[in-house]
């Protein structure tokens, strides 16, 4: 029995050494980026749909993004104050507001909204759902993301531009962005 176990262990050791040798010998060398001029790399990257920023441009974009986040946080507080003051209005004014909202909703329902969705490499299904919700194509981004994942569409999303409409259901939208 000892002889069998030793033979098996020796076979595993030999197989490991052979695989290690193949791994190092068969490794294909990668092209060195140092040989490509920076202008050519920028052109290649931009042709793939990415944007190239200098360090100063990146810093200015980051600062603007931080300012937008701070301003949005401040406007949310203002919205909450407006909402609380609207709740104190009388029932008569609320009824007239509801009638106006209903009439505007009926005009919105008669004309479906369209949006051209551009899907680029590396975009997550949740980002697609969020974009569609922001453009009034779908009502609930989380529900649409869950639908994509449950039905297996999330792995099949294709790159490109897709014309979508608010009168399409989840299945139609999913099939459009996966074909």
Describe, in plain words, how this protein is organized in 3D.
The chain has 179 residues and is mostly helical. The protein has a domain at 112-178: Dna Ligase, domain 1. It is built from seven helices and two strands. A two-stranded antiparallel sheet has the order 1-2. The chain is extended and about 85 Å long. It starts with a helix and ends with a helix. 8% of the residues are buried.
Report a brief summary of the structure.
This protein has helices at residues 2-25, 38-47, 55-87, 91-110, 125-134, 141-150, 170-178; strands spanning 114-119, 160-165.
List keywords for this structure.
about 180 residues; Dna Ligase, domain 1; 7 helices
Write the layout of secondary structure elements.
Elements: H1 2-25, H2 38-47, H3 55-87, H4 91-110, E1 114-119, H5 125-134, H6 141-150, E2 160-165, H7 170-178
Antiparallel strand pairs: 1-2
Structural shape:
extended
Uncertain regions: pLDDT < 50 for 5+ in a row?
78-108
Query: What spatial order of strands do you see in the largest sheet?
Result: 1-2
Give the class from helix and strand content and strand pairing.
mainly alpha
Q: Note the total helix count.
A: 7
Q: What string gives the helices and strands in order?
A: HHHHEHHEH
**Assigned CATH architecture of the domain at 112-178:** 2-Layer Sandwich
CATH top level of the domain at 112-178? Alpha Beta
